Amino acid sequence: MSTSAVSRIHKNFINGDWVEARQGRTFENRNPADTSELVGIFPSSTHEDVNAAVEAAKAAFVKWRLMPAPRRAEILYRAAEILVKRKEDMARDMTREMGKPLSETRGDVQEAIDMTYYMAGEGRRLFGQTVPSELPNKFAMSVRDPLGVVGMITPWNFPMAIPSWKIMPALICGNTVVIKPAEDTPLSTYNLVQILIESGLPRGVVNIVNGMGPDAGAPLITHPDVSAVSFTGSTETGRIVNQACAPSFKPCHLEMGGKNIIIVMDDANLELAVEGAVWGGFGTSGQRCTAASRVAVHAKVHKEFLDRFAARVKSLKIGDGLDPGTDVGPVINETQLETVMKYVEIGKNEGAKIVAGGHRAESGGLSSGWFHEPTIFSGVDPRMRIAQEEIFGPVVAVISFSSFDESIEIANNVKYGLSASIYTRNANQAFRAMRDLQTGIVYVNAPTIGAEIQLPFGGTKGTGNGHREAGTAAIDFYSEWKTLYIDYSDRLQRAQIDAEL
Ligand code: NAD
Asked: What is the pTM of this model?
């Protein structure tokens, strides 16, 4: 039985207690595949709730930072074990609130499992450096200190994976947490934190404040007792977060939008490239930050690729993600559907040609959800808005090019820099692409999506601000270096000045 079926009214989690929003307001979480289904009711919080949550996290930090990291890790190991057992329930809840097919929501929960195990392992590592001192009888090393209370703001497209990418490294480093989940998918954060509580997480170490961005997210970022902020979402909101953190020099980690590309060279395995473009472009209904919303194809194979790509996409089954036959679920909400439809009109007006899809999908019982046909535009000029702006829906722009250099120029000539891919059997081209693509992630002979949690994740330019999620890179954000010198010579030794033994 899914957890949401047990209790459909949810609360904030503050200092170890489930509590209503101080002002008593709530919002609804509805299934995007069938909006008549109410998934849950959640508190709509304001700065008063944020203040209480930060106060609890600040108090909990006093003890949590002193708990040895291997002990903190034991809680994470237990959480990972419970997640494994409840994976199916968590995935079903997620499909109901977010819409993506069950196979994908299972993958989302699996990512949380992987991250939880990985960061639990870091509890016995958290490596610093021990280096020789330039002076005799002196010891030099660096250790990692936690930052304090970390404020987290997450999007709806990876409702459990992304909160886990932030919460687990933060905890293992000794920080405490206040998280404001996306208002479209609060249930998956609830489920994740519920498991941490069952695993023995002390009171106040993780707190959830639900609600809208401006009401509950904004006061979290600016709260003086929040030492650092980790944000994933759109570039527009990321800019607001960045500016809000700037006056107090608050470290802030931003993971934002993308306009990712698959390059198909004339020597590519076309069958493989078509499969990659279908999965990269239409997995999660194109709502992944790494979605391949552009496919650039060498002119020599353009027609053959496009024919095969369009035929394959027309055969995709649109529907409820809980139905095992579904390939493409709904988009997240009405606003997102309107955005997709707006961009389809923009593409047509710009002179691009629709070769698959192009409409809202309503027939066959889909009219009560936010469905859109998987859509392909051909004849796209790389300067068109549909080739430059993040649509975040099932729309792919196919662009033709005539040389390797031109493909790299097209790839790099956007304001984002998250993920890029090249299909080629030429090793020289593959290595040149790995060197010249200006993105945080590059794939060879695989689509732009499918990151693994043990390596850094993030992007350049308008996608990020230099930090990375996942892998040991995440530890770098959630900890601060402290350098320690221990002089056991019993005399004053001046660095750079006293050299004699
Ligand atoms: P969004 O920016 O609308 O919302 C993200 C979060 O910010 C939500 O929790 C929202 O409530 C909150 N928020 C909104 N306004 C706020 C404000 N003024 N102050 C504080 N918080 C505020 O993004 P979204 O629609 O939820 O997610 C889609 C976007 O996320 C896409 O652009 C996608 O590319 C990006 N994304 C990026 C990555 C990555 O790792 N680079 C991963 C997933 C999604």
From this structure: 0.96
